[in-house]
Amino acid sequence: MNASGKDRPAKGDKVAWSTHGTETTGKVEKKITERTEAAGRTVDASPEEPQYEVRSDKSGQTAVHKPAALKKKGKS
Known about the structure:
By secondary structure, the chain is mainly β. The chain is built from no helices and seven strands. It has strands at residues 13-19, 22-32, 36-38, 41-43, 51-56, 62-65, 71-75. Strand 3 and strand 4 form a beta hairpin. This is DUF2945 domain-containing protein.
């Protein structure tokens, strides 16, 4: 994802990210734009530096990632 926001993911987008050296796929659940608790940790996000809660297709677990860690796979 580029930093301009143009290619940032949106809710429902299919994305992939690296987990322990392997690629994991899932869907964007929500965009986080403020400091909050999500996926079992404190997320220090802001409108200028949002983070995204994603749900793994394989495990069903949620995780939070910065846009640079996510690769769009298209909408599903």
